[in-house]
Amino acid sequence: MVKFRRNTSLLFLSSFVLLSGCHKGPQDGVVATVNGRPIQQTEVDKVYAQQLASNPQQQSPSPDQSDSLKLNILKELIGEEIVEQRAAKQNLVASDADVDAKIAEMKAPYTEEQFQARLKASNLTIDELRRDLRRSLTQTKLLNKEINSKISVTDSDVTNYYNAHKAEFNLREPQYHLAQIQVTDQGSAPSGNLQNNKANGDEDAHKKIQALKNRIDAGEDFGQLAAMFSERQDTAPNQGDMGFVAESQMKGDPATYEAIVKLKPGETTEILPLLDANTHKTAGYSIYKLISKDAAGQRDLSDPRVQQAIRQQLHDSRSQLLTGAYYEMLHDQAKIENYLAEKIFKDVAK
Question: For residues 132-154, b (16+ Cβ closer than 10 Å) or e, as one string?
């Protein structure tokens, strides 16, 4: 009997050791768990491949660089999973109708063939796009309820900020709020616009800008045309809005400056040559719209634009602060096991 009990104890102990060392890890396709819910290696690999494809300088990372990138990707995926679980508890997960509406909005500027081509270029399937959109929409819903709905910017806050930062609203020179439609003759450059529309050579560029000028003169919306067809990547997504440009900066291009200073708010220039910054030769064409002009001098608190700018800045800074604190709270409350981090540490720190 004693011998039997000893063997049984040894067998039980062996089983316990095996079971305790048998947690999920990279070897079985799970790189981390969040409150018991797994994150798969395939998810990390997919994002990893997308990031390498979008950054040619990272095409051949060293083993250490590769591991570091994968750890950062996994950290983001863990954060997304934490947010999704919190949103589920709050009944704030984006619905199929929410996702369908967003996809319809994304498809609007394209034919079905163009949309599918863009998906392929992004290395995404429609199911993966739906998943990513659901995550993004869910996060927005959660932050709107948990954070943005709780931020209040009072008139007193605005006044106090203005009084403490009055110099920020004292313009040393006139400022021109401009929007631009730009067409270049560089056919190989990315378009940056919603239609993925790109001129190819000077003749094609001139035909395109003339067609756009005709549509503007016929009363079509400048901002929508800029979003659809402008080839300036940093402004096309914002309907061509360049923000405020100082008068001294504009004078660097005398012909453009002369055309703009003649405008009244809401008016547009004629077609203007776009000069290459290095060669000073024509590299395309532009049309500018003057949205507003601010004279030099102190802008008063009574100016609605000053009040709105301050309110937005205070709201955004508070939202950023609260969002960071909120994510830290959720992270601290979650049970996270990062098997990929454990594996990399063991492999490298030998």
Answer: ebbbebbbebbbeebbeeeeeee
